[in-house]
Write a structure and sequence with these properties.
The protein is α+β, with helices and mostly antiparallel strands. It has 2 helices and 3 strands, in the order H-H-E-E-E. It folds into 2 domains: about 45 residues, no CATH class; about 40 residues, no CATH class.
Length: about 80
């Protein structure tokens, strides 16, 4: 049975990354702390995925972006909501 070179490469890359993460827990902790602070202060660029809920209980889906704001639309009641980006 021959092995797939793509899956071999992926598993090798996965093992390499995992071993680096295991060897450098301080760097991982520092990155996570800095990422948390950047996200808390609004410096991380995120796009709304539609996980927000409407007052009627329906899910909001991404409609369009206007400037820095996102226009979300409810799937059930079709009301729109402006979300600051």
């Amino acid at each position: 049975m021959t092995s797939d070179p793509v899956s071999d490469l992926k598993s090798r890359e996965y093992r390499r990354i995992k071993s680096w993460r295991d060897d450098n827990p301080d760097k991982i902790r520092q990155y996570n702390r800095e990422y948390y602070l950047r996200k808390k202060n609004g410096l991380v660029e995120t796009k709304h995925t539609g996980d927000d809920a409407c007052r009627c209980g329906g899910k909001l889906i991404f409609s369009r972006k206007v400037g820095d704001d996102y226009i979300m639309k409810c799937k059930t009641c079709l009301k729109t909501k402006v979300v600051n980006g």
